[in-house]
C-alpha cells in the first residue's frame, strides 16, 4: 500500500494502537473496517512468577473471563452440594481437581487468543508482537519479541496499554507473592490463601477460592469495596463471612517469608495497634491492592502527552492534550476500568477519526457486577452518592429482602438476599440507582441498566408485571421505603 498523504504530511499508517486489550482491539478493528490502515502492538512482560499470556489483554487472559470461569466452578461445587437435597445421589465426594480446572480455563483462553489473531488478519489489521514507545507524537518505536526493532509512522496513535497489579513495598512481596495475573494458571493448588486487599478483585478471588474448598483470609486496610454502595458492600462481607471467609479489618501486611517447607509466613499489623505484629502461615499470598497504568514504558513525555497521577486524561472525544493522540481503557484518568466501557469507547474513537462521527462516550450509569459468592450487581448512584448529589431529603430508597425459590429445598441462607432502588422524590420518582445482591446478579442488573438509561421511574417499575418465580421480579415488587421504617422482609415468596 502506498504511503498515506494527508494535510500535506505523509504517514505510513492511519492509526497505530499501542495495546492489544479489549479497548485497543475494538478501536483497531473498527478503524480497519472504515478503511484505515491500522497496526496494533501488544507485548506482555512476565510477572515476577514468570506468568505471561497471549493477545487479548487483561480481560481475556487474566481478568473477566478466567475469573468468571473460576466463579462458575465455585458455584457448581455449591450446586453439587445442593443437589443432594433435590434427590440426586452422588457416589464420589465433592473435590476440585485444580490441575484440570486451570487446564480447562487456559485451553479456553488460548482458543480466544487464536480467534483474536485470526480476526485481526481477516479485518486487515497488522498485528505486531512488540513493546512500543513514543519517539514523538507521530512515531512509535517497537522492540519486537524477536528483538528486532522498527519505527511506525502514523497520523493517529491510540494509547491502550492497560494496567497491571501493584505489589506492596514490603519484604518478600514480589519474591513469594502472586497477583490475579498468576492465580488462573497457577501450576499448583493454592491451598490456604491470604488475599491482601478488598476491592472487587480481592473479594472475587477469595470468594471462588473458598468455594473451591481452600481456606481464604482477607487483609483489609480500611473498608470493603471502596467506591461502591456502603450498605451492599458491608452485606457482601457478612455473606462471605457466613461462608467461612475470614476478614482482618484495619490491617496491613508487613512481610512475607518463605519457610523451609515452602510455606509462607506472613506478618501483619492492625492499624489500631501497629506495635503488635501478628503472623500466620499460608500456602499462597495473593496481592489485590490495586492496579497501575503501564505508562512508564511508553515515553509519553517525548510525544508531549500529560500524565496525571499515573494516568492519561482525555476530553469528551477521548483525545489527550496532543491533537493526534487518543487513549482508551484502564490507562484513563478517573474513568471506569471495565472491559465493555473500553470496547465501546474504542469503537467510538475509530468512528470519530475515520467516519466523522460526533458520538461521544457516555461514562455515566455504567452497570457492573462483583462476582462474589453471592453476586452484587449495580447501576447508577450509590445511596451515599445520591444523598451527596441530590440531598437526603430529596431521595427515597425502596428496598426489600427476598427469598430465591431455588434456595428453599437445600435450605441455603437467604439472610443477605437484598435489593434497593434509589429514586428522586416527587412526580413519578425517577430512579437514579439500582442495587441487587443475590444469584445471577449480573444477568439481572444488565436489563435494568438499559431501563435506567432510558429514564425508568418507580411508577413504571411498580406497573411492570414480574416473571414468577424469578429473583429479577423482586424489583417490580419494591413497595417499602427506608423512610417508612417498615420491615422489608417478605412473609412468603409470593407476598
UniProtKB/TrEMBL annotation:
UniProt-listed Enzyme Commission number(s): 1.8.1.9
Enzyme class name: oxidoreductase
Pfam families xref list: Pyr_redox_2, Pyr_redox_dim
CC terms in the record's Gene Ontology section: cytosol; mitochondrion
InterPro entries named in the record: FAD/NAD-bd_sf, FAD/NAD-binding_dom, FAD/NAD-linked_Rdtase_dimer_sf, GSHR/TRXR-like, Pyr_nuc-diS_OxRdtase, Pyr_nucl-diS_OxRdtase_dimer, Pyr_OxRdtase_I_AS, Thioredoxin/glutathione_Rdtase
Superkingdom of source: Eukaryota
Cofactor dependence: FAD
Broad class of the protein's primary localization: mitochondrion
UniProt GO BP: cell redox homeostasis; cellular response to oxidative stress; glutathione metabolic process
Binding site for NAD(+): 197-204, 290
Disulfide links within the chain: 59-64
Binding note for cofactor: Binds 1 FAD per subunit.
Residues the entry annotates as binding FAD: 68, 132, 330
UniProt-annotated catalytic positions: 468
Domain FAD/NAD(P)-binding: 13-346
GO MF annotation terms: flavin adenine dinucleotide binding; glutathione-disulfide reductase (NADPH) activity; thioredoxin-disulfide reductase (NADPH) activity
Keywords: Disulfide bond, FAD, Flavoprotein, NAD, NADP, Nucleotide-binding, Oxidoreductase, Redox-active center, Transit peptide
Family: Belongs to the class-I pyridine nucleotide-disulfide oxidoreductase family.
UniProt cross-references to PANTHER family, sorted A to Z: GLUTATHIONE REDUCTASE, THIOREDOXIN-DISULFIDE REDUCTASE
Physiological role: Thioredoxin system is a major player in glutathione metabolism, due to the demonstrated absence of a glutathione reductase. Functionally interacts with the Sod/Cat reactive oxidation species (ROS) defense system and thereby has a role in preadult development and life span. Lack of a glutathione reductase suggests antioxidant defense in Drosophila, and probably in related insects, differs fundamentally from that in other organisms.
Protein name: thioredoxin-disulfide reductase (NADPH)
Species of the source: Chironomus riparius
Amino acid at each position: 500500500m502506498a504511503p498515506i498523504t494527508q494535510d500535506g504530511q505523509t504517514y505510513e499508517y492511519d492509526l497505530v494502537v499501542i495495546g492489544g486489550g479489549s479497548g485497543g482491539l475494538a478501536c483497531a478493528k473498527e478503524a480497519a473496517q472504515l478503511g484505515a490502515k491500522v497496526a496494533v502492538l501488544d507485548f506482555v512482560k512476565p510477572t515476577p512468577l514468570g506468568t505471561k499470556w497471549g493477545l487479548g489483554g487483561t480481560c481475556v487472559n487474566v481478568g473477566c473471563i478466567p475469573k468468571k470461569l473460576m466463579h462458575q466452578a465455585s458455584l457448581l461445587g455449591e450446586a453439587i452440594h445442593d443437589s443432594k437435597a433435590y434427590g440426586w445421589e452422588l457416589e464420589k465426594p465433592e473435590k476440585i481437581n485444580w490441575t484440570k480446572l486451570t487446564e480447562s480455563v487456559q485451553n479456553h483462553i488460548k482458543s480466544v487468543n487464536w480467534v483474536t489473531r485470526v480476526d485481526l488478519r481477516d479485518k486487515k489489521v497488522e498485528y505486531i508482537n512488540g513493546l512500543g514507545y513514543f519517539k514523538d507524537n507521530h512515531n512509535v518505536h517497537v522492540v519486537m519479541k524477536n528483538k528486532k526493532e522498527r519505527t511506525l509512522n502514523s497520523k493517529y496513535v491510540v494509547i491502550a496499554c492497560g494496567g497491571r497489579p501493584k505489589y506492596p513495598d514490603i519484604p518478600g512481596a514480589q519474591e513469594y507473592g502472586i497477583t490475579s495475573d498468576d492465580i488462573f494458571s497457577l501450576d499448583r493448588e493454592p491451598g490456604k490463601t491470604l488475599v491482601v486487599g478488598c476491592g472487587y478483585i480481592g473479594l472475587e478471588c477469595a470468594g471462588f477460592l473458598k468455594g473451591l474448598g481452600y481456606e481464604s483470609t482477607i487483609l483489609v486496610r480500611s473498608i470493603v469495596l471502596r467506591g461502591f454502595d456502603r450498605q451492599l458492600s458491608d452485606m457482601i462481607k457478612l455473606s462471605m463471612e457466613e461462608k467461612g471467609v475470614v476478614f482482618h479489618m484495619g490491617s496491613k501486611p508487613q512481610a512475607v517469608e518463605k519457610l523451609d517447607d515452602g510455606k509462607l509466613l506472613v506478618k501483619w499489623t492492625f492499624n489500631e495497634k501497629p506495635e503488635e505484629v501478628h503472623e500466620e502461615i499460608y500456602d499462597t499470598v495473593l496481592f489485590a491492592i490495586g492496579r497501575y497504568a503501564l505508562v512508564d514504558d511508553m515515553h509519553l513525555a517525548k510525544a508531549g502527552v500529560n500524565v496525571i497521577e499515573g494516568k492519561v486524561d482525555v476530553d469528551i472525544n477521548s483525545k489527550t492534550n496532543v491533537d493526534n493522540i487518543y487513549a482508551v481503557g484502564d490507562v484513563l484518568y478517573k474513568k471506569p476500568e471495565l472491559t465493555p466501557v473500553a470496547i465501546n469507547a474504542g469503537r467510538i474513537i475509530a468512528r470519530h477519526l475515520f467516519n466523522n462521527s460526533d458520538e461521544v462516550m457516555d461514562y455515566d450509569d455504567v452497570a457492573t457486577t462483583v462476582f462474589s459468592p453471592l453476586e452484587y450487581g449495580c447501576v447508577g448512584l450509590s445511596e451515599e452518592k445520591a444523598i451527596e448529589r441530590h440531598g437526603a431529603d430529596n431521595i427515597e430508597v425502596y428496598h426489600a429482602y427476598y427469598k430465591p425459590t431455588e434456595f428453599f429445598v437445600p435450605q441455603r441462607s437467604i439472610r443477605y438476599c437484598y435489593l434497593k432502588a434509589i429514586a428522586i422524590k416527587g412526580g413519578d420518582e425517577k430512579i437514579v440507582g439500582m442495587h441487587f445482591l443475590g444469584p445471577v446478579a449480573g444477568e439481572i442488573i444488565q436489563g435494568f441498566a438499559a431501563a435506567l438509561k432510558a429514564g425508568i421511574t418507580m411508577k413504571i417499575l411498580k406497573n411492570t408485571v414480574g416473571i414468577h418465580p424469578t429473583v429479577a421480579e423482586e424489583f417490580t415488587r419494591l413497595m417499602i421505603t427506608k423512610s417508612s421504617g417498615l420491615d422489608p422482609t417478605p412473609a412468603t415468596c409470593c407476598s
